[in-house]
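chain below, 136 aa
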Amino acid sequence: MADLNTLGVVTAAERGAEMILKHPATGADLDITFDVLGFDAEAVVQAGREFDRAEAKRTPEDRARDGESAMSRRNVALAVAAVTGWRNVQRGDADVPFSKEAASEILSNPNFVWMIGQIVAFGGKRQNFFPASSGD
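prediction:
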């Protein structure tokens, strides 16, 4: 019998999980690991709310000038909120220590849109945040 106390999606999302980044062309595992909150975590939900409030205040002219879709920008905001750490991130020969500012800079770069897709897919999949045995 399932114990409902072990099935709280917010609790699981707040614990977070390690996500191994995959190569954008081959899908092979890279040696880069991101610590990711599930998208039910309060920080991620709050980032979505803040984005939605700001988006609602934008004029049609603002939206027309912006070449990026609202959904793409929202996904960046959610990904930045969800990533709480990383390992083995480098630019050139320099290690990039984790900070929210560094995460925002990298994840906002159009060259790295493939990372956003992986974070959104991983963060939105609740199974990633429960121990394998919790589905018994």
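The longest strand covers residues 29-36. The chain has six helices and five strands.
thats it, cya
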